[in-house]
C-alpha cells in the first residue's frame, strides 16, 4: 500500500464530511489503495486498514479492486469487509464500483464505517461469506439477520444451469452459495415446491435440515427468471450449525407434558414428540416438537409446541388456528343439484347420520394428511372441504367433481351410503390432493395411478385410524354389499379377487372401457404398494421377486413424496417406479430404494435396475450348482457349501429344481454384520422353488432344505 499526499477537492471527490472545513477545500493526508496493493497480498491474506489513522481513498487506476480482500475498521470496532459495506451502503454513499472507469475513486473514513457497522441488521460477514458474495455478478441489496446470515439478497445472482429440472438447478446454485449462508455439510436443503408466476418468474422453495433434523422456520426460496434462468433474489432464513447443541438432555414426553400443562389443565398430544431445531425470536434452539390439542375460552385449539430440549422452556408455540379443519357438508335430498342445503359445518353437528359421517371422516382424512405429511387440506393451504350427501336416488357411487366430494346412498344391495365408509372418503379426498399435485390425467396409465393413489392413501388413512390389519388392504369393505360379510370393493393384497382388477403389468387392460382401465389397472400399483408395506411375493406367483417389507408408514411417505414431487400429469407405471425410487432414496436410502424396485418388479413393471421387471428377466439363468439331500430335514448351503459377496445392489436369483415327488425349499441369507439373516424364502409344497431378491452389497448364501423326500437337485444362481 502506498501512502501519498493528495489534494482532496471538496467538490469533486470528497465523500466525507471530515475533509470539509467550512466548505473550503483543504489539503488532507489520505492513504490510497489500488488493485496492485491487493494483488500483492499473499494467499488468503486480507488488507486491514485502521481508519482511526485517517481516511483511505480507493482508486481504480490499476483496475478493479477485489474488495472482498480489504477490511476496514475504526479503532476498536470490529473490522468490516469493504465488499460488504459497498453491497449494503454503496448505493446510499453514491459509490458504484461495478463497471466504473479507471479514474473512479472514493474515500472511506472512520465515521462512515462506524455508522455503517452499528446500523441495525448489519452484522459483519465473515470472510468466506463475503468471498462467495463477491463471486456473484452483481449484488444490489443484502439484508442479514442479527447473526450475520443473509435473509434477503437481490441483484444479478448468476444463472441456474443444469437443464430442465429447476429444483435441481436451484439446489446446485444454492450449494455454490452455501458459504454465503454459512452452511456446511451438516445442512441439507430439500426442495419442497416451486411455481412459475404470471410474470414468468420461478420460485423454488427449500426446507433446511441440520444434522438430519428438520429446522422449523429454516427456509430459503430462490427466485429466478424462468426463461433465462437468471437468479434475481434469494430470500428466507437458515440456521448455521455453529454453536448449536446436537443432543437433547430432556426426556421428550416429560418436556412436552411440562409445556402443555401450562396451556391447559386438559390436553391431548398427537403423535410422539419429534426432535427439531426451531427458529425463535431469540435464535435457533434444539427442541422437542409436538402437536397439542386442548380447549380454551375461544374454543378448540391445536398448537405445535416446542420445548427446549435442554432447558425445557417453551421456546415457541405455533397456533394452528388456520389449520383447524374447515368442513361443510350439504344435503342434496336425493336430487342432483350441488351443493344442496347446508347440513353441518365446522364446530357443529347433525342428527343426519350420513351427513355427520361425511363430516367426521373427512376430518379424519384431513388430520391424517396434516399429521403424516404436514399437509393442510387438499390444496395444502387450508381449503374448506365441501361434501354433499344423499346425492340422487339409489346412487351406487361417490366422486370428487374437481371442487367438492359427492356421495350416493347406494341401493342397499351393492352398497350402503358411501359417506359412512372411511376408505371412500379418504379415496375421494385424495383425488383432490392429486388434482393439486401431480394432476394425473384420468385415463390409461396415469388414470390408473390416480386411482391407485386414492386407494393407497385410503389404506394409509385406514391404518392411521384403526391400525394395520387384513382390513387395511380391503377397499370400501364398510359400505360394499352390506348383506355380504368379509367382502370388499377392491383387494389390494390380491387385486384379481374382485373378478375385474389386474395385478400384473404385462397383462394390463388396454381397452377403452373405464377410461382405459383406471379402476382395474390400479390393482397393479395397489399390489406394489401392498408388497412394499407388508413384504412378500406376487399373490398369483406371476413373478418370483421377494419384496422386503418397509411398513405402511414408510411406503406411504414414499408414495406421497412421489405424488407431490416427481409424478407428472401423464405419468406411466414406469414413471411411478422411477418417482417412488427417487423418493425412497431421498427419504430412507439404498435399501428402501431396492425394496421399491422389487415391488415394481414383482408386479411386472419394466425399467428396473439391471433391466429387471416387465415380465422378462425373472426366468432362471445363471450358474448351476448341484447337490444331494439324503433325507427330509437335511440341508445344504450353496454355492459349494459356502457364500459369496457382491459389491453392488441388484437382483439375486435362485431357482431350485429338486427330485420329482420331493418337497424341497429354498432360502436366501444375508450377513448382517454378526449373523446370517434370512432375507427371502420360497416354501412351496413342491420340488421346485424360485426367488428373486433385490439386495444391497454384502455377503449372501443360499440354503436348500428337504421338507420331505431325498435326491439330487440343481440350484441355478445369479447375483449382481
Ligand atoms: C366409490 C369408492 C371408490 C368411489 N372412485 C372410486 O373413483 C370409488 C368407486 C365407488 O373408485
Ligand atoms: Zn376414484
User: How far is the first residue's CA from the last residue's CA?
Assistant: 65 Å
Structural class: alpha+beta
Number of helices: 14
Q: Into which percent range does the helicity of residues fall?
A: 10-25%
> What radius of gyration results from the CA coordinates?
33 Å
The hetero molecules present are:
~{N}-oxidanylbicyclo[2.2.1]heptane-1-carboxamide, zinc ion
The overall pLDDT average reads: 87
Q: How much of the sequence is in beta strands?
A: 25-35%
Largest sheet: 10 strands, mixed
Task: Please give the number of β-strands.
Answer: 36
Structural summary, described in words:
The protein is globular. The protein is an alpha+beta fold. Helix 7 packs across helix 8 (422-436), helix 8 packs across helix 9 and helix 11 (522-534) crosses helix 14 (590-602). Mean pLDDT is 87; it is low at 1-27. It contains 14 helices and 36 strands. The strands form eight sheets. Strands 10, 11, 12, 13, 14, 15, 16, 17, 18 and 19 form a ten-stranded mixed sheet that branches. ~{N}-oxidanylbicyclo[2.2.1]heptane-1-carboxamide is lined by residues 397-398, 418, 424, 427, 451, 476, 519.
Amino acid at each position: 500500500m502506498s501512502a501519498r499526499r493528495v489534494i482532496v477537492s471538496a467538490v469533486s471527490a470528497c465523500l466525507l464530511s471530515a475533509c470539509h472545513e467550512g466548505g473550503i477545500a483543504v489539503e488532507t493526508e489520505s492513504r490510497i489503495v489500488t488493485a496492485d496493493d491487493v494483488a500483492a497480498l499473499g494467499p488468503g491474506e486480507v488488507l486491514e486498514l485502521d481508519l482511526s489513522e485517517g481516511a483511505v481513498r480507493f482508486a481504480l487506476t490499476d483496475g478493479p479492486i477485489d474488495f472482498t480482500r480489504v477490511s476496514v475498521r475504526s479503532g476498536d470496532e470490529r473490522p468490516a469487509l469493504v465488499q460488504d459495506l459497498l453491497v449494503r451502503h454503496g448505493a446510499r454513499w453514491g459509490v458504484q464500483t461495478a463497471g466504473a472507469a479507471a479514474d473512479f475513486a472514493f474515500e472511506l473514513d472512520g465515521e462512515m464505517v462506524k455508522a455503517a457497522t452499528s446500523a441495525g441488521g448489519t452484522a459483519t460477514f465473515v470472510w468466506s461469506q463475503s468471498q462467495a458474495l463477491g463471486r456473484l455478478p452483481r449484488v444490489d441489496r443484502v439484508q442479514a439477520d442479527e447473526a450475520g446470515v443473509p435473509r434477503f439478497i437481490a441483484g444479478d445472482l448468476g444463472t441456474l444451469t443444469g437443464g430442465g429440472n429447476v429444483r435441481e438447478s436451484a439446489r446446485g446454485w444454492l450449494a455454490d452459495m452455501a458459504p454465503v449462508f454459512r452452511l456446511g455439510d451438516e445442512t441439507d436443503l430439500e426442495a419442497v415446491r416451486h411455481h412459475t408466476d404470471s410474470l414468468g418468474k420461478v420460485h423454488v422453495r427449500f426446507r433446511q435440515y441440520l444434522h438430519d433434523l428438520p429446522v422449523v422456520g429454516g427456509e430459503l426460496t430462490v427466485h429466478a427468471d424462468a426463461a433465462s434462468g437468471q437468479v434475481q433474489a434469494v430470500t428466507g432464513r437458515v440456521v448455521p450449525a455453529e454453536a448449536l447443541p446436537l443432543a437433547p438432555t430432556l426426556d421428550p414426553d416429560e418436556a412436552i407434558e411440562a409445556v402443555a400443562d401450562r396451556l391447559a389443565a386438559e390436553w391431548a398430544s398427537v403423535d410422539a414428540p419429534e426432535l427439531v431445531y426451531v427458529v425463535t425470536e431469540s435464535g435457533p434452539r434444539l427442541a422437542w416438537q409436538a402437536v397439542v390439542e386442548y380447549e380454551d375460552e375461544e374454543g378448540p385449539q391445536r398448537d405445535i409446541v416446542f420445548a427446549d430440549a435442554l432447558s425445557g422452556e417453551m421456546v415457541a408455540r405455533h397456533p394452528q388456528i388456520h389449520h383447524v379443519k374447515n368442513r361443510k357438508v350439504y344435503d342434496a335430498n336425493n336430487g342432483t343439484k350441488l351443493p344442496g342445503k347446508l347440513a353441518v359445518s365446522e364446530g357443529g353437528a347433525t342428527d343426519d347420520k350420513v351427513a355427520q359421517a361425511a363430516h367426521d371422516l373427512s376430518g379424519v382424512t384431513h388430520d391424517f394428511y396434516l399429521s403424516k405429511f404436514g399437509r393442510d387440506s387438499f390444496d395444502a393451504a387450508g381449503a374448506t372441504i365441501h361434501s354433499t350427501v344423499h346425492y340422487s336416488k339409489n346412487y351406487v357411487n361417490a366422486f370428487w367433481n374437481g371442487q367438492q366430494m359427492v356421495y350416493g346412498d347406494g341401493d342397499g344391495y351393492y352398497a350402503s351410503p358411501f359417506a359412512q365408509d372411511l376408505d371412500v372418503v379418504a379415496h375421494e379426498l385424495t383425488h383432490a390432493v392429486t388434482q393439486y399435485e401431480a394432476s394425473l390425467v384420468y385415463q390409461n396409465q396415469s388414470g390408473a395411478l390416480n386411482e391407485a393413489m386414492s386407494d393407497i392413501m385410503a389404506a394409509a388413512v385406514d391404518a392411521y385410524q384403526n391400525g394395520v390389519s387384513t382390513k387395511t388392504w380391503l377397499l370400501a369393505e364398510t359400505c360394499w354389499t352390506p348383506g355380504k360379510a368379509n367382502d370388499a370393493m377392491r383387494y389390494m393384497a390380491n387385486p384379481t379377487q374382485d373378478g375385474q382388477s389386474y395385478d400384473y403389468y404385462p397383462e394390463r387392460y388396454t381397452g377403452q372401457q373405464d377410461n382405459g382401465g383406471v379402476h382395474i389397472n390400479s390393482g397393479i400399483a395397489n399390489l406394489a404398494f401392498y408388497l412394499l408395506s407388508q413384504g412378500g411375493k406376487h399373490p398369483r406367483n406371476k413373478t418370483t421377486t421377494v419384496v422386503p417389507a418397509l411398513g405402511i408408514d414408510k411406503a406411504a411417505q414414499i408414495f406421497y413424496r412421489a405424488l407431490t414431487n416427481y409424478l407428472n400429469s401423464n405419468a406411466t407405471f414406469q414413471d411411478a417406479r422411477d418417482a417412488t425410487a427417487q423418493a425412497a432414496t431421498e427419504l430412507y436410502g439404498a435399501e428402501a430404494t431396492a425394496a421399491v424396485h422389487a415391488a415394481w418388479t414383482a408386479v411386472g413393471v419394466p425399467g428396473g435396475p439391471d433391466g429387471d421387471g416387465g415380465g422378462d428377466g425373472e426366468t432362471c439363468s445363471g450358474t448351476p450348482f448341484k447337490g444331494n439331500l439324503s433325507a427330509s430335514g437335511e440341508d445344504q448351503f450353496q454355492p459349494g457349501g459356502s457364500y459369496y459377496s457382491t459389491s453392488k445392489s441388484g437382483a439375486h436369483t435362485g431357482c431350485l429344481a429338486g427330485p420329482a415327488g420331493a418337497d424341497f425349499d429354498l432360502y436366501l441369507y444375508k450377513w448382517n454384520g454378526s449373523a446370517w439373516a434370512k432375507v427371502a424364502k420360497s416354501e412351496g409344497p413342491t420340488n421346485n422353488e424360485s426367488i428373486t431378491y433385490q439386495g444391497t452389497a454384502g455377503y449372501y448364501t443360499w440354503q436348500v432344505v428337504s421338507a420331505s423326500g431325498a435326491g439330487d437337485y440343481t440350484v441355478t444362481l445369479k447375483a449382481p
